[in-house]
Design brief:
The chain contains twelve helices and nine strands. The protein is of the alpha/beta class and 286 residues long. The strands form two sheets. It has a seven-stranded mixed β-sheet, sandwiched between helices. Strands 6-7 form a two-stranded antiparallel sheet. Helix 2 packs across helix 4 and helix 3 crosses helix 4.
């Protein structure tokens, strides 16, 4: 039933799905007190207080954009690949991707929970081999749909476990690209505490380890939703790390800058500050 409904929604035009997303976002915000509280708390932590006019605008936008992020998924995963790529109608910074390719040492795309982060991997998969790390959802039918929707073009998927990490290493060794969500909370033992908008957040160390060991280029990647469902604007920019300093902290700082350029489209409902099971919140990297 759910799979059929998902397929049915995939046939709707993207502008219609985004309108439905706005409605869904506001309904969820109104009906779930914990959801609403987390969005407000995370926005306030980032300096966007819902008590002033700027904060209110960002809050309203974040509520709507979170809903769009759900309702656009059937379209992203269910429509033909060429149709989905056609929605990526503006690209800024593609010269940085080309320069990284010329280096022939692999590329690590860091794509935070900003805008339609599904689009970046799909877009790059038309140009080069890319292996994307993912965490399986709890619903079996959803994983099947998700994998079919993501593994298109030259894209391959790697589960977020030891075998998946090995696939990432091998891809970089071949000079290929990989994709990571750098603001996704890793399991205990797979990260360190690093500041994110002034508060310790458990942050993956994998991106830095892969970059340092392989010499791969690091690129920040995002896909901003355009107004009224007109498509997506992709942005790529290089990230240079100083390995003598905290790499997770440097990555978080880069993400903060990226998010602040388009704050309404960040997924503020994500529990970025959660403490992984078995980890003490007192063990923090300062």
């Amino acid at each position: 039933m759910f799979k059929f409904t998902f397929q049915l929604f995939s046939r709707l035009p993207l502008p219609v799905l985004h309108v439905l997303g706005v409605i869904l976002g506001h309904l969820t915000y109104a009906l779930s007190g914990s959801y609403a509280a987390r969005i407000r708390e995370n926005l306030r932590q980032a300096g966007f207080s819902p008590d002033d006019e700027q904060g209110k605008r960002v809050l309203r936008g974040a509520i709507a954009e979170a809903g769009k992020g759900i309702t656009e998924l059937p379209w992203i995963w269910g429509r033909p690949y060429n149709v989905v790529l056609g929605a990526a109608n503006k690209c800024i910074g593609i010269e940085h991707v080309e320069a990284a390719q010329a280096g022939r040492r692999g590329i690590i795309f860091l794509t935070p929970h900003l805008g339609c982060f599904e689009m970046t991997g799909l877009y790059m998969a038309q140009h080069l081999p890319i292996t994307v790390l993912y965490r399986p959802p709890r619903l079996h039918w959803l994983e099947e749909v998700m994998c079919a929707g993501r593994a298109r073009g030259h894209a391959k998927l790697a589960k977020a476990d030891l075998s998946g990490v090995r696939l990432l290493y091998k891809a970089l060794k071949r000079g290929e690209a990989i994709g990571l969500l750098p603001d996704q909370v890793p399991s205990g033992g797979e990260g360190v505490w690093a500041g994110f908008f002034g508060r310790p957040a458990y942050t993956m160390t994998l991106a830095g380890r892969l970059a340092e060991s392989s010499g791969a280029s690091l690129l920040l990647a995002s896909a901003e939703r355009q107004a009224r469902g007109h498509g997506y604007t992709l942005r790529f920019e290089p990230l240079t790390l100083d390995y003598s300093q905290s790499v997770p902290q440097q990555i978080n700082a880069a993400l903060e800058r990226l998010i602040c350029a388009c704050p309404a489209q960040y997924l503020w409902s994500y529990n970025r500050y959660k403490v992984p099971r078995g980890l003490s919140p007192a063990v923090r990297e300062q």
